[in-house]
UniProtKB/TrEMBL annotation, chain A:
Its main location: cytoplasm. This is BRCA1 associated ATM activator 1. It comes from the Eukaryota. GO terms for cellular component: cytosol; nucleoplasm. The gene is BRAT1. It comes from Mustela putorius furo (European domestic ferret). Belongs to the BRAT1 family. It is found in: Cytoplasm.
From TrEMBL, chain B:
InterPro entries: Beta_Casp, Integrator_9su, Metallo-B-lactamas, RibonucZ/Hydroxyglut_hydro. Its main location: cytoplasm. Component of the integrator complex, a multiprotein complex that terminates RNA polymerase II (Pol II) transcription in the promoter-proximal region of genes. PANTHER family: INTEGRATOR COMPLEX SUBUNIT 9. The keyword Hydrolase does not apply. Component of the Integrator complex, composed of core subunits INTS1, INTS2, INTS3, INTS4, INTS5, INTS6, INTS7, INTS8, INTS9/RC74, INTS10, INTS11/CPSF3L, INTS12, INTS13, INTS14 and INTS15. The core complex associates with protein phosphatase 2A subunits PPP2CA and PPP2R1A, to form the Integrator-PP2A (INTAC) complex. INTS9 is part of the RNA endonuclease subcomplex, composed of INTS4, INTS9, INTS11 and inositol hexakisphosphate (InsP6). Interacts with WDR73; interaction is required for the assembly of the RNA endonuclease subcomplex in the cytoplasm. Residues 548-573 are annotated as: Disordered. It comes from Mustela putorius furo. GO terms for biological process: negative regulation of transmembrane receptor protein serine/threonine kinase signaling pathway; regulation of cellular response to growth factor stimulus; RNA polymerase II transcription initiation surveillance; snRNA 3'-end processing. SUPFAM superfamilies: Metallo-hydrolase/oxidoreductase (SSF56281). One of its GO terms (cellular component) is cytosol. Belongs to the metallo-beta-lactamase superfamily. RNA-metabolizing metallo-beta-lactamase-like family. INTS9 subfamily. This is Integrator complex subunit 9.
Amino acid sequence: MDPECSQLLPALCAVLADPRQPMVDDTCLEKLLDWFKTITEAGSSLLLLQENPCLVELLCHVLKPQDLSSRVLSFSLRLTGVFAAQEDCFQYLQQGELLPRLFGEAGPLGGAAWTAPTVRSGWIQGLRSLAQHPSALHFLADCGAVDTIFSLQGDSSLFVASAAGQLLVHILSLSMRGPAEGPPSLQADDWPPCAQKIVGHIEESLRSTATPQITQALNVLTTTFSHCHDPWTQVLWVQLHPLVAALLQKDPVPAAHSLVDLLLSVARSPGLSSSSCGLWETLAQTLSHLSPTQAGLLALGILKLQDCPQALRAQAFAVLLQPLACVLQATAQGPGPSGLLDSTAADSVTADMLLPSKAACVGLLCQTLAHLELLLPLPQRPCPWPQAPLLGAAVTLLQLCRGSGSPASDAGRQLCALLLGCVRVQRAALDFLGTLSQETGPPELVTQVFAVLLEYLRSPDSSPTVLKKAFQATFRWLLSSPRTPGCSDLDSHTLLFLRELLPVLQKRLCSPCWEVRDSGLEFLTQMTRRWGGQAGFRHALLASEVPRLTEQLLRDPESYVRASAVTAMGQLSSQGLCVPPAGPEHPGSQQKSLLGELLHILSTDSEGFPRRAVMQVFTQWLRDSHADVVGDTEQFVAGVLQVAGQDLDWEVRAQGLELALVFLEQMLGPPRSHCPYAVTPPVAAPAGPLTQALQSLCRVRLFEFAFRALFDCDRPVAQKSCDLLLLLRAKTASSSSLQEPRSSPDVASVEAALQRWRAGDQAQPLGDLEPEVVLAVLRSMDLEGLRGALAESSDHVEKSPQSLLQDMLATVGILGENEADCY
Amino acid sequence: MKLYCLSGHPTLPCNVLKFKSTTIMLDCGLDMTSTLNFLPLPLVQSPRLSNLPGWSLKDGSAFLDKELKECSGHVFVDSVPEFCLPETELIDLSTVDVILISNYHCMMALPYITEHTGFTGTVYATEPTVQIGRLLMEELVNFIERVPKAQSASLWKNKDIQRLLPSPLKDAVEVSTWRRCYTMQEVNSALSKIQLVGYSQKIELFGAVQVTPLSSGYALGSSNWIIQSHYEKVSYVSGSSLLTTHPQPMDQASLKNSDVLILTGLTQIPTANPDGMVGEFCSNLALTVRNGGNVLVPCYPSGVIYDLLECLYQYIDSAGLSNIPFYFISPVANSSLEFSQIFAEWLCHNKQTKVYLPEPPFPHAELIQTNKLKHYPSLHGDFSSDFRQPCVVFTGHPSLRFGDVVHFMELWGKSSLNTVIFTEPDFSYLEALAPYQPLAMKCIYCPIDTRLNFIQVSKLLKEVQPLHVVCPEQYTQPPPAQSHRMDLMIDCQPPAMSYRRAEVLALPFKRRYEKIEIMPELADALVPMEIKPGISLATVSAVLHTKDNKHVLQPPPRPAQPSGGKKRKRASEDIPDCKVLKPLLSGSIPVEQFVQTLEKEIL
């Protein structure tokens, strides 16, 4: 600890010990504790206590009966734990009887302060830090802490209860790590008394009839098996396994969720050889005993396991598929297997789960769809994957939600009534359908998929979120639709679909609901980006009203829509898909006017999103050498930088730097690759083109823009500018022709202006700059230093422990002054 | 208690309830779908319509070719449109005591009932219902009378001939009872029989029953009715809505504890959600106008149009349609727009509060002020000089058989740039369009029906728990086109009783009690004896006096004083049967004493 802090510490301890001076801000206490942790991790705690006796005084002081705030008491308990983590310091505190007084019966445990959850939590966390060595175990045994922890497992505060469980696991594994004389016995009877006590408690809880106790025991075991992988855990599992299995005999199975967690954590534990412990049998048994909702999670977990018997995987997959099989069964037009599950086709349990209540039905279906969606991209997903029936199920669900399916059976009609208009199932099914597009399906089913998607896109009743999902799923299916071999264009079916889709999109772009217009535009942008170059798509799009409507949405009242329209128009224009104006006498004037319109948005729009979108479009245009830009690139860049430089939104300014970077690279070549195998261009760039390039950069006033940005009050902008100028300096470092003595009067005046800018006075412009002057200024600047400063977090100056201590004292001091003022 | 069902149309009901000595007609809706069988009445001479070929029978006989014309494979009657009246033969309508009107759409047959059946009773309705109902009738009469038609077809109605006609003429019901439109004089006379009522006002009918209108949330002044006696309660729910549009919200609580709930006027398009449809309406309107096309909205002059204008008011700026003119053409357009603003007490809370601000409740006033919405009585006159395209026109009649809409259909039908958007759910849009085929203009069907759907009904029934539900037969099974949609029917326990046109239902409900009052002096004389804790009994000897359906127990006349012989005789003549009544015995018999007395008396 540095001397300054040591000096401040006594005063701070005095403040903390004074109940009349409450600590208002408890984040300070957290920071203080963090600081002590770093100190004790680096050095001896004992030394720290000896050098700063005020700390022990504080700990002694909190034990006195007084109205100390529960925060300070909790802090002191945790601090004690941090110190006592080192065995010598532990002994030192033991000698002073401090530890039993803080953590034993005599401490806050019995007092009024114990009612505050924060004190109980501090007590647990203190013990958690302290329990690092065998002496601590003896201490815990002596002061009866373990029994208290047992009772805290059922604490009314969830944080306390959960911490108590974790502390038990920690103590168990600590005691099993044992003293120095070697690894513990693998016979449970020979385990240390502390471990035996905890295991005994767990056994007792598992035998209990009260679900909360069973849950606590299961949670402790789950944490144990997921964190400890030592051989003793296998002994523990063998010993407890019958008790866990016995839970399955109860109806309903108690604490099913925790049981699933435990079984999965045991199955994942590398310390256990699953086959020998009857785990697979238990898992199979559990799958069949739990309700479909509870079993779904377990089934997913089992299917994610790397090595697992095939039969169990098959059973788990069947459980997962059951709800969907049930849906297919209920809606099947004729008898016969639905194709999803052969043996357990009509599982009455699942049907019973699905049909009685809307909430249960919707919950189970959404959960099943989400689980299957997670499973699909995994390498260990079941094989063969029932793609066709799953597609069928997703389509059927979507039809049922719309009321467009025509179920033949009573169960189907009931299901239809439950699902009708259910947005949750619609969203889940559309997501799932989109994910299924990774695989293909039988052509007639794919036709049905497109039909149902179109139905959703068309329906006036589709909610905006459902519609967005429908657009996303449609795009994914369009991406996966088959292509004519050797040709990247869309196939004839897809084109046919597109012709039906575009009128729908047209209507959606006119929707009164802005979310719908927005998702429509996003969808258009995605499609154009993907197929904008293909004849079939271009033809269909140009024949529709979509491009013209998109252009009108540039003036939408909703800023998000304007932003999406800007992006969409940028994309359309890049692909040459903007509609030419009606009159033949203005060839290309629409294109011109789009540039003008975007510049207008950039300089006048009151919202940030459309302006940011414009900058992104412009950057992309510059990168792609868009026809409008190529005509007079310098004028374009100059105009954009001028407007962007004055923008109030830092993201627009940062995007301006991105555009400047693209221009710079086009002028000077890309930055040198860091890839060791890349072909390195000649180091010395030819002087002639470099001069011209720099002159061009000067003409567009790129330097003025970049220098201004360098002193921007928003750090990301300044960082970006710094990187850009460093790149420029690296590019020009090797050029000899531009070496110029830096004592030129121009250089001096520019540097002086920059000094003023740095100080915050950016009123004065730099004026026309010569390349030589710029380079000289660049060389003279400490850009690396600036980059280092910018890389520091903004509070790096204020983050020292000294400043923390000062702050804490100052807060109290101010409180004191106010108190004086009152009199 | 009986219910006579005079109309089979679920949303245009006309039923008669006989309840305690009163005969109450519930609504008198007019089924106008019959007009779809007729050719449109063009306001401006239409060469296309006048040159349609006459229709001839399969055997070539062409004696009907003057009456029936053929257009794109459909046959239409070339005559003044006629309406299908409620059943008039099922019950003598002159015995109807009162008519209760629930909303302005359900009173269109009123002149036929009040003017031609010998009806002498009173009609009850709220003020907006009467005023807007008058506008609807006025518009209807105006539409029909301003296009006089020389011929009136009647030959085709002959039963033997009708059998030979193609569908749907062949299947049209009771064509012989179809009537031409009433006159303005009849309208005025009918409306003069209406007595205005306010929500929750209690109206005594002959002392026997009490009727009360309740807000139903569907339209300005629309009401449900409670018909109750002291021990029985019948609720009549007709055209109610739970959506927050412009009218006062529906009063559900007062419908509780009904013995019978008569449920009519549910949404006609249960699968179309009104919010989605309004969105669809706006999108299609914008799409057409942006393409340079015109939009035609066939509509009634009141009701949903207020909501549509309000939606458009919010939408046009965002859709960049500020410079597109909106025209509202109806003989009653002006009155309708103005009436809506003055019925503040009948509006929803949100709009009521606007009355205290310097702005009118409906934003269409602002649309008119800024010249975005213009209204005209007819397309003749000012309109023709102001008319500018592309534009949006709201005009009637939604059947497309008469009114200014006929002209716009003829004018715009040939261009695929134009769109007709159907928002009124009363007429099948395909049938409405049949005489305009072939048609190039786009047709969009966005029916906006804010009345209760089946989900709302099942919630309502759970909430108000009537003992019995009576409804049109259409509501007791899913629609024929969607037979699997079990959710599209009324589901209640016990199952709802259904009715159809010309049916008489005995309501499953017996009257058990009648309220009787006791005169104070009689009540004073009672000596109650407690027979169980909290229950006392007293014997009453009194005379039951009944007048105007009210029953009163009066003290029995005093026994005549034994005086002169002659007088005594007179007195006994005056009040027959007025012997002095011995007090009646009650309670348990003291057995021993009884036996002793018996022995004493007999022996």
